[in-house]
Design a protein that fits this description.
globular, alpha/beta, 12 helices, single chain
Length: about 350
């Protein structure tokens, strides 16, 4: 059930505050980790809030450390915001070997780099970002521990009644994007074994906040009275702040070769039921198209919960927040997830 003590954010500033409010998991991780933190690819959808969460959690834990965000910073506003939040920023093309060599040392690295959207139209860049860049990162930060974001897409479609993919399942990627994501993992694994780099591989399905995510995609379609495609009938969703906290906490559980860590919500949600809920909240009729498939891209993160910690924000809370935000015309990143893609093309 939604928590009435957690009101819906009304502004971007309130949303950013909520997304970066440290929970116990984040504070404990930042207290127990020693040394500075470098975040590579900090300019993406999750990076700025992960950096600020790390900053706030470190401050709350009473630990002095540098939080350094590295990105091309195609949006100057993102860099300005990070600096205002107390994050050091470095503009860098991470595909440039000479540039990456000049980055500062740090014992803790979170690698958030990667290319998904546009992968089908620019496969060469996708392979470079997802497979070549991890090799550069591994060589540069061979003396660090590395938490590298991956994706649950590497598992492929699994029966809904299976409960979702677990970390020991064999990868079965569908489409070139998912294949390159598995390539990213293999590069981190190779260099971990060769150079003794402790790491984690974070297989994420799907982080959401109020400006983007699967729930935002569905709410916007319901509000616009567009037909909802049921072919990808089910999904996982996790509040972005909790996904970021789990990513930071994973740095306490690195291994050689890298430990695989599923990051996902505890529930398997049906598109049909979620859209019916949005229909009630948004006061819109809901239309569906297509048939529900018996399989989907689903993660089971039970092992991660036992080791790292369990998410606390319920799906009902996220649905309520999302409906309110979308109904009021809150800011959107305009980046659909395309989670409904069953052929792996993005």
């Amino acid at each position: 059930m939604p928590d009435p003590s957690q009101p819906t954010p009304k502004t971007v500033e309130e949303l950013d505050e909520l997304l970066t409010r440290p929970n116990e998991l984040a504070v404990r991780a930042m207290r127990e980790l020693a040394g500075d933190l470098v975040i590579l690819g900090v300019g993406g959808k999750m990076g700025p809030t992960l950096a600020r969460l790390a900053r706030r959690a470190s401050d709350e834990a009473g630990v002095t450390r540098r939080i350094i965000g590295v990105s091309r910073f195609s949006s100057p506003d993102t860099r300005t915001k990070l600096q205002r939040w107390g994050i050091e920023t470095i503009a860098c093309d991470l595909l440039d070997q000479e540039a990456i060599a000049k980055l500062p040392n740090a014992p803790n690295v979170v690698c958030m780099t990667g290319l998904k959207f546009g992968a089908s139209s620019n496969p060469a860049l996708t392979w470079a970002m997802n497979c070549y860049l991890p090799a550069l990162v591994s060589r540069r930060y061979r003396d660090s521990r590395i938490a590298a974001f991956s994706s649950g897409n590497v598992y492929g479609l699994v029966p809904i009644d299976s409960g979702g993919s677990i970390e020991t399942d064999a990868p079965n990627p569908i489409g070139e994007y998912a294949i390159t994501v598995l390539g990213r993992e293999r590069m981190f694994e190779y260099f971990s074994r060769q150079l003794g780099i402790p790491g984690t591989l974070l297989r994420l399905n799907y982080a959401t906040e109020l400006r983007y995510g699967v729930l935002v995609d569905l709410a916007q379609q319901v509000l616009a009275q567009q037909p909802i495609d049921l072919s990808m009938s089910s999904f996982n969703v996790i509040w972005q702040a909790e996904a970021n906290a789990m990513a930071l906490a994973s740095l306490l559980h690195t291994a050689t070769p890298p430990r695989i860590v599923n990051i996902a919500g505890a529930e398997i949600l049906r598109v049909h039921e979620v859209c019916e809920a949005f229909g009630r909240l948004l006061d819109r009729p809901v239309r569906f198209t297509g048939a529900e498939s018996p399989d989907a891209l689903l993660n089971n993160a039970s092992a991660s919960y036992a080791q790292i910690g369990r998410p606390q924000i319920s799906s009902e809370q996220m649905i309520q927040w999302t409906a309110d935000w979308v109904m009021r015309g809150g800011e959107s990143l305009g980046k659909p997830t395309h989670f409904e893609s069953r052929d792996g093309r993005f």
